[in-house]
Predict the 3D structure of the following.
Amino acid sequence: MEIQVQKTTQEWEQSVGAQIRTLRQSARLTQRELAERANVSLSSVQSLELGRGSSLATVVRVVRSLDRADWFEDLATPPPAVSPREQWRQAQLESRRQIKRVRSTARARTA
């Protein structure tokens, strides 16, 4: 069994900040230029890139200005119409029905 260690909030902030820095540099933008494009302060971009925490609004603005709004698609996916718990219950009921059918046909043969 593999133990999976989850990242802390600080580790996530640093990871996202590093990715944003890489995207900014790939786009050949300075922090000031990115701040202007995203309509946020320079210090907000600096804090974000350093993983020092930022508001969600700042993250969304910066990510959108870097043309990476696709990052948010998984977060915005609507929940499934049928819950996983309900799917499991339905599978259990179907399994029980199949077992009863097998037993009833076996009894019919012996009678």
User: Anything to note?
Assistant: Residues 84-110 form the longest helix (27 residues). Residues 7-75 form a domain with the 434 Repressor (Amino-terminal Domain) fold (CATH 1.10.260.40). The chain has two domains: 7-75, 78-111. The chain has five helices and no strands.
